[in-house]
Each structure stands twice: as C-alpha cells, then as structure tokens.
From TrEMBL:
<keyword id="KW-0560">Oxidoreductase</keyword>
<protein>
    <submittedName>
        <fullName>3-oxoacyl-ACP reductase family protein</fullName>
        <ecNumber>1.1.1.-</ecNumber>
    </submittedName>
</protein>
<dbReference type="InterPro" id="IPR036291">
    <property type="entry name" value="NAD(P)-bd_dom_sf"/>
</dbReference>
<feature type="domain" description="Ketoreductase">
    <location>
        <begin position="10"/>
        <end position="194"/>
    </location>
</feature>
<comment type="similarity">
    <text>Belongs to the short-chain dehydrogenases/reductases (SDR) family.</text>
</comment>
<dbReference type="Pfam" id="PF13561">
    <property type="entry name" value="adh_short_C2"/>
</dbReference>
<dbReference type="InterPro" id="IPR057326">
    <property type="entry name" value="KR_dom"/>
</dbReference>
<dbReference type="InterPro" id="IPR002347">
    <property type="entry name" value="SDR_fam"/>
</dbReference>
<dbReference type="GO" id="GO:0016491">
    <property type="term" value="F:oxidoreductase activity"/>
</dbReference>
C-alpha cells in the first residue's frame, strides 16, 4: 500500500518550531509532504536539528530567527519564509510564552511581553501570511486548554492571552473564507515537553486534571495540526487536544 502525500507541494511556516510541539509539527508536516520553514528565537542548534530532520524526509527546510513579540519581526519572518521556499500555504502560529503567578506579582513588563508574543505576534504573522497565501491557505494557531478551563490561581495573564486567540481565529475564518483560507485553533492540555515535562514537580497535579490521567505528547498535537493543514471544510473551530482537561 502507498500512503497519500496530502501536503505535497505545500510550504509551511511553524513559529517556535525548534522544540516541543513546534518541532514535532514541523517534522509531521514534512512527513505529509510539505516544505517547512522553522521559526525560532533562541536555540539555533535545535532549529538546525529540526531542519535536518525535515531534509532527511526529502523536503526542503530553512531555519529563520525572529522574535514574534517584536512588532516587525513577526511579519518579516513570514515574508522571509515565503521568499526562501517560494511561497506560503500553511502558517502554524506556535510561538508563545507563559508567565504564571499571582495577579499582584505580574509587572507591566510581564503583561507586555505575554500579549506581544501570544496575541500581537499571532495577529501580525497571520496578517502577513494572509497577504501571501494563495486560495486554500491554512492558518493554524496553537492556544491552550486554559482558554477553556482555568483550574486554579496564577494563570490570569496567560489565560487572557490564549483566550484572545479564539476571537482572532473566528474573525480570520470569516474574513478569509471567501478565498478558501481556513483558520483554526488547537488547544493542547498538559503536553510532555522540555518546558513542562511529564516527570516535573507539578506534573502529577496537571495529569490528574485530565480525564485520561496523563500528559499528552507533542506528536499527538502535531497530528491534529496535520489534519487541519489538509482539511478543506473546517474553519473557525477550536480543537482541544487536552486528554479531557475541559470535560
């Protein structure tokens, strides 16, 4: 049997693609046939490793450094990806930061940084991508289960930033639907990554909040992103990949 290459000939940009969910997504999209630009802000060696993994699958790849919290760099990365790989069909807004702590400890700098990366950067990258995409493009944004359920104190700023992505996604779906461009939002629960390992000090409590009682894997999130990259009649939707965190 042969496996259909669903994304053959497509070009994808994955922001925050050097590790965790972003790295798994970049490799999964390449496995489905896409050429991939890997965005990163720190960790050039890790980004280069992802590029090598994509190329080993027979696809083209490039690593692009940009701080998506910068008002110009988010859009510039989109343009750079399109120039390097000859176009852009799929944008995966994965880059994000989290500042968790009591409300009265959050500084203005914390607020600015989280909203700049998690909201403004996603908006500007999506805006730039929409200007570049042909008919049938895909915008897929990685949010958080905390946009649907905040299980305890300390997540005010982070949840605010991730909840904003639901409105952005629905509005993009309406604005770009006439061009066949879809926009969807993936909401991961606790996922085993180097930033939040399944054996970390707070892991047991997070796992207990899910219906399945465990952390998810980056590959499980990436499979949902790959589905949305190929789906033609799904837009403006939210996809929890959270093990039942919101159940």
């Amino acid at each position: 049997m042969t496996t259909q290459v669903t994304l053959h000939g497509k070009v994808a940009l994955v922001t925050g693609g050097s590790r965790g969910i972003g790295a798994a997504t970049a490799v999964r999209l390449a496995r489905e046939g896409a050429d991939v630009a890997v965005g990163y802000v720190n960790g050039k060696e890790a980004a280069d490793d992802v590029v090598r993994a994509v190329k080993e699958l027979g696809r083209r790849a490039v690593a692009l450094r940009a701080d998506t919290g910068d008002a110009t760099e988010a859009a510039e990365m989109v343009d750079a990806a399109a120039e390097a790989l000859g176009g852009l069909d799929i944008l995966v807004n994965n880059a994000g930061v989290g500042v968790i702590g009591p409300l009265d400890t959050l500084s203005l700098a914390d607020v600015d940084r989280v909203l700049d990366v998690n909201v403004r950067g996603v908006f500007l990258a999506s805006q730039a991508a929409a200007a570049r995409m042909p008919e049938g493009g895909r915008i897929i944004t990685i949010g958080s289960c905390m946009a649907q359920r905040v299980p305890g104190p300390g997540g005010t700023l982070y949840a605010t930033s991730k909840a904003a992505l639901a409105g952005l996604t629905k509005a993009l779906a309406r604005e770009l639907g006439g061009r066949g461009i879809t926009a969807n939002l993936v909401l991961p629960g606790p996922i085993d990554t180097d930033m939040n390992p399944a054996d970390g000090p707070y892991a047991a409590g997070q796992a207990a909040m899910t219906a399945l009682g465990r952390f998810g894997t980056a590959d499980e999130v990436a499979s949902t992103v790959a589905y949305l990259a190929g789906a033609t009649y799904v837009t403006g939707a939210e996809f929890p990949v959270d093990g039942g965190h919101a159940a």
